């Protein structure tokens, strides 16, 4: 029988330093909470709104009093803000083991009236800013990564980057295109950064009851309606995101690179005509 190396710590993130964008609410906050549960000792989050950052930090610090939790508010859709954010992170820490690139936006409108400005805004934040953030953070990630335990980047895509999403009156054309781009960019970055001891994977969530998704979710039958359409009979829960995020950041996934993991109960396998 082969020997499993130190199994009890395989999923531990003890002592790690993590950065989570869009970490003040929704999937980003779920991810941040999960990383702290797994042992992350230093966590830096960001979102555009300073008050939302402060509220999230207070809540996380209360739950994890021994961790160093802080926030750097920033509008990552602007390249100068990405540079400023990473510079501020570099003042706090000398290395980053985990980067969760989660910040994102959506827009719904009919194809004939879908504004160019909205499409550009979604692509800027969901794709361009993610690439800019990763590029700027590479030195901090390289400082943390080793051959045995590489640094980790997790991009947050979506199942609408794998299948047809919302069309018609509330069509999310720019959002769907942006998430497909995130998935493909993740694969390119995995090949480019793997030799530099940085692994890059993507999580593709389905329906979760987040602020960004709630309006569209209500239009499509709510949690109950979409839950019934899913092969496992429900929509996502916070622990569903936590489990995948912790796995990808842990030693258990030290040979996982360039993957896109749907977290949707199998909805991406259901034909659009059945949804």
UniProtKB/TrEMBL annotation:
GO terms for molecular function: oxidoreductase activity. The keyword S-adenosyl-L-methionine does not apply. Pfam families: adh_short_C2. Keywords: NADP, Oxidoreductase. InterPro entries: NAD(P)-bd_dom_sf (IPR036291), Sc_DH/Rdtase_CS (IPR020904), SDR_fam (IPR002347), Sec_Metab_Biosynth_SDR (IPR052178). Belongs to the short-chain dehydrogenases/reductases (SDR) family. PANTHER family: 7-ALPHA-HYDROXYSTEROID DEHYDROGENASE, OXIDOREDUCTASE, SHORT-CHAIN DEHYDROGENASE_REDUCTASE FAMILY (AFU_ORTHOLOGUE AFUA_1G14540). This is Uncharacterized protein. It comes from Sphaerosporella brunnea.
